[in-house]
Structures are given as structure tokens and as C-alpha cells.
Amino acid sequence: MDLPMVYIRSKKKEHGKTNQIEGKLEKGQKIVIIEDLISTGQSVLDACNAAKSQGAQVLGVMAIFTYELESGRANFEKNQVPLVTLTNYSTLIDTALSDKYIDEKELTLLQAWKKDPEHWDLSV
Has 2 been labeled as part of a binding site? Predict the structure, then answer.
């Protein structure tokens, strides 16, 4: 592909050179940020903001997986950053059910967790 690559942390390092961005990022450069997993999206959106502060044009974020949390959807919408993922939580649990890795009771638990992961309790 012969494309440039930079590494962007969500926060500046507290040691060494304390860089948040490693590599050369040109002002006006169009970039796509690659992430493995999206929950709330806050860390990757912090990286987007760091890139924007250096003059980059963030076209969007691509990730392998998203939990599809409402807070994540809202964060990407609020920051006006497009998100594209290879797969998601709904597909994961649907496939797990159809391939009999989980049963209907477990599906109900997993769906309940997704509705409110911060307050979810297995004992309920």
C-alpha cells in the first residue's frame, strides 16, 4: 500500500519524550484511524482530537469490533466522526445463538448487559 503511518495515543506519555503522536503528521493530511475495539469510543476520539489539533483531517475511524453501546454511538455522533466496523455485538451474539454456543437464557443476559453495562449485575 505504501501509505504513511503514525501512532496516536489517547493521552500523552508520562515518560520518555512524552509524545502523544509518534511519526510525521502533515498539516491537512487526510487520515483514517484504525482501532481494534469500540466500547464508548472515548479513547479513539481523544486520538482523533489530537490528530485534528495537529492539522490532520480525520476522515473517520475503522475498527474490528463494536459493542454498539449507546454511549459510543452518541460520542461518535457528537464528535461528527464516522465509524465503520467489521463486526459488532449484535452479530456476535446472534451467531453464538444460531451456532448453539449460547442458549436463549444466556442471550437474554447478554442483551440486558448491552442495554446498561455500567449498572448490569449478573446476580439480578
Answer: no
Identity at 29, one-letter amino acid code: Q
In a domain, 65, yes or no: yes
pLDDT by residue for the chain (124 residues), tens only, comes to 788 889 888 777 666 666 788 888 899 999 999 999 999 999 999 999 999 999 999 999 999 999 999 999 999 999 999 999 999 999 999 999 999 999 999 999 999 999 989 888 876 5
What CATH number is associated with residue 64? 3.40.50.2020
- pTM, two decimals, is 0.86
Strand 7-8 and strand 21-22: pairing?
antiparallel
87 labeled binding residue: no
Cα three-residue angle 55-53-1, rounded to 5 degrees: 50
Is 23 known to sit in a ligand binding site? no
Is 99 annotated as contributing to ligand binding? Answer: no
